[in-house]
Amino acid sequence: MEFFNDILNNLKGDYVDIFFEEKTTNQLQMEENKIQKCSAIIDKGLGVRLIIGEKIFYAYTNDITKNGIAELISSLKNYKHAKSCINLKKFSSPNQFFIKKSPQDVNILEKIKFVKKANDTSWVQSKKITQVKVFYSDMIQKTKVANSEGYFTEEERIYTLFLVHAIASENETIQTGYEAVGGLKGIELFEEISPEEIAIKATKRAIMMLKAKRIKGGRMPVVISSEAGGTMIHEAVGHGLEADLVQEGISVYSGKLGDKVASEFITVIDDPTLPNMRGSYIFDDEGTPSQRTILVENGVLVNYLYDKYTSMKEGKASTGNGRRQSYEHYPIPRMSNTFIAPGNHSPEEIVRSVDKGLFVKKMGGGQVNTVTGEFVFEVQEGYLIEKGLIGEPIRGALLIGTGQEILKNIDMVGSDLGFSIGTCGKNAQGVPVTDGMPTIRIPEIVVGGQA
């Protein structure tokens, strides 16, 4: 702690914080039936942020020697320097996560076995499989955060990620299948779902889509399954609720606090305290304890996601959403585990309510404009709904609309809840997230497809 005191007592602005990080990342990638990548990366460094008024000054270094720290302090002293006396006190949180089997306790040969099992399982599913890529990653991140308010926190985060990408072809048709699992977990991830199961899901999706027909575009009812994960809520709605975009006026939700922005069936929550989710943490990257934040409650916008800087601008408390990719980046407001709360309808009831429409089982990629809320999302796996029953598979479908339109039009919300994982990109930074939603019904939305 003395190390952090020395830095803080040599710098003073309206707010100063230090982020120290020590990170070990192991990665394996198999393609063309060969291990193409096997790497272990160790990185260590710290970043110091100085906030003066509405200006942010940030410096970082991987030179943790006395001279390296002195040079970093010197680079920030040019902005503002005053004597201070800070006595750091360690801060604890009731939120804790249990890791059953740390990746560092597992031999690299065992990890290679996971990758090979998935690879071999994919190839034997069908002769139509032409390419398989399997990726494994684990990361152990140790952080320490200290600030000019006298708080000191430390945390160890362990992430494990596993994904399979399969390509199938028949005649001139090529289709892909993708499945990813992971979380704030160790090797116990593979006790929940085996490498073989992950491979089968991805591979069968690619094979099944070969026989799928192209959907005819137009406006129609759409049911999005909880299995699809919450990609749409994350992209079409979540980013617009991050306070930096709101304050800059580049969010469609700027100035709408207290307004009805969704149907009464919709409650949107961001919660990094959920056990062992990919977007979970005990403290955010500013040392603020994680907390559950309700963003939209029964259709009404009640809060935004804040970090220290954006909360200081409004005289509010941070919601614990200050996150960064590494010590080389200063924190900004980011989502963690963001989801629509479950409702009262059964998924089966929701599907039965649609005479003719589209059932989305798996979402693909997409694009969103946070200023207007307009989005386009690809449907990776979808089916026609005919007379309340899920029918034949379709391909080439796109969901086109705006976040506001979607939220206001949802008229049935399922009692189930499913999650998907990802790495969210913003301002050239990537952070681990989880997105979720129940099965929902949108009575009408534009579905792009064949003319």
Automatic annotation (TrEMBL):
Lineage, top ranks: Bacteria, Pseudomonadati, Nitrospirota, Thermodesulfovibrionia, Thermodesulfovibrionales
Domain (Metalloprotease TldD/E N-terminal): residue spans on this chain: 16-74
Protein's UniProt keywords contain Hydrolase: yes
Superkingdom: Bacteria
Protein name: Peptidase
Listed GO biological process terms: proteolysis
Pfam families listed in its UniProt record: PmbA_TldD_1st (PF01523), PmbA_TldD_2nd (PF19290), PmbA_TldD_3rd (PF19289)
Family membership: Belongs to the peptidase U62 family.
Domain Metalloprotease TldD/E central residues, every copy: 102-210
SUPFAM superfamilies to which the protein is assigned, alphabetical: Putative modulator of DNA gyrase, PmbA/TldD (SSF111283)
Location of the Metalloprotease TldD/E C-terminal domain: 218-449
Keywords: Hydrolase, Metalloprotease, Protease
One cellular component (GO) term of this entry: cytosol
Originating organism: Thermodesulfovibrio yellowstonii
Keyword Amino-acid biosynthesis: no
GO MF entries: metallopeptidase activity
